[in-house]
Every structure is written in C-alpha cells, then in structure tokens.
Amino acid sequence: MAKVAVYNMEGKEVEKIDLADSVFGVEVNEHLVHLAVLQQQANDRQGTQKAKTRSEVRGGGRKPWRQKGTGHARQGSIRAPQWTGGGVVFAPVPRDYSFKLNKKEKRIALKSALSSKVADEKFVVVDELKLDEIKTKKFAEVLKNLNVNKALVVLNDMDTNVIASAANIPGVKTAQTNEINVYDILKYDTVVTTKAAVATIEEVYA
C-alpha cells in the first residue's frame, strides 16, 4: 500500500494514510486512458457543422445554356460544385461523434489515471477543506500553503463556499467524487483531495 501524507489547510503534515492498491496502485493501462480521454472529447463535440450540397443550394434550376453549339462545356446548373456559389461535394452534415466505453474499461482508466498521479507524487491529501465564507483570497492561500498551482480539487460533498471561492482562480477546478474523470485528472498538474473524498473513492472503485 502506498503511504501519503495528510496536510492541514496551513500546509503542515498532520498524519499519514494508506491508499488502497486496488484503486491508487494499479498498473497504468495507457491504451484505456487514451480511449477514455478520446471518448470524453468526442462526447463533448456538438457535431453541428453543416454545408449545403448542390441539391440544397437556392437557385440553379435552369440550364445556363443549351447543350451544344455554344463552344462552352456542357452545364446543367449554375449551382454545380465547380461554380462559384455552387453546392459542396460530400458536404458535412450534423452528426453524433460520441462512442461508448464499457464500464469496466472506464473504471480501469480512472484508476490508472489516479495511480499515475500517486506515482508522480502529484496527489495531495488534505484533512479537510472548510471555509466560513466565500473568499477567493483565502482559498488561494490554502493552495499556496500546499505548494500547488494548477489543480483539480476533489471534494466529498457539495461545499458551496469552497466551490465558489475556487471558481475565479485560473487553473483550478473543483469536482465531487462522483464527477471526477480521466480527462480532468490528467489535465491538471496536481490532484488535491480531502481525506473523506479518498475514502469515498476507495469505497466506490475498489
């Protein structure tokens, strides 16, 4: 079992805890991690790009000149693709880019991402994150005490004071244990999580 230090909001070590190897000490499966990131990005795509084909462009119903005898190449419509203002060949249409990943594959990818952060010593555990009021400056001080800059802050419950205080800090994102995903874990340099959140993650993913 990996041992990690638990810090308080002043940045002082208060204890050490063991992390479950079944969640934070698995062998990293890079292929599934890649697929999980790819899936999230694909699912986020709107897929709303659209261009008109020659059948959809307005006008061009009349043949521009007779078939023979003009010296021009034969043309059937001024909205054919080779004309200015004509339709687009194989025009893009709205489509769904999303694809599915098995539950088991998602779990392995998430555990791989968490394990990689622990291995790189980019996983910081705090005994608790509590603020009496919404104050960005106070939360920025907590991150400074923990020597953390760009971070994903994982909370065990919906703490509006902490979430609102972190909202205006560039490079910081808050998430609850049921919202964490592979993309965010890898995107942010450090994962900062409460001790309670660690216990919940182990309970859900072990």
Structural class: alpha/beta
Identify the CATH class of the largest domain: Alpha Beta
Largest sheet: 6 strands, mixed
Task: Return Rg in Å.
Answer: 27 Å
Can you tell me the CATH topology of the largest domain? Ribosomal Protein L4, Chain: A
Q: Are there runs of 5+ residues with pLDDT below 50, and where?
A: none
Cα separation of the termini: 13 Å
> Into which percentage range does the β-strand content fall?
15-25%
The spatial strand order of the largest sheet comes to: 2-1-3-6-4-5
CATH architecture of the largest domain: 3-Layer(aba) Sandwich
The dominant shape is elongated
Task: Determine the number of helices (DSSP H or I, runs of at least 4 residues).
Answer: 7
Number of strands: 6
Q: Helical residue percent?
A: 25-40%
CATH superfamily of the largest domain: Ribosomal protein L4/L1
Number of domains: 2
Order of helices and strands: EEHHHEHEHEHEH
Mean pLDDT: 94
GO biological process, one term: translation
GO molecular function: rRNA binding; structural constituent of ribosome
Region (Disordered): 43-80
Subunit structure: Part of the 50S ribosomal subunit.
Name some characteristics of this structure.
six-stranded mixed β-sheet; 2 domains; Ribosomal Protein L4, Chain: A; 7 helices; 206 residues; alpha/beta
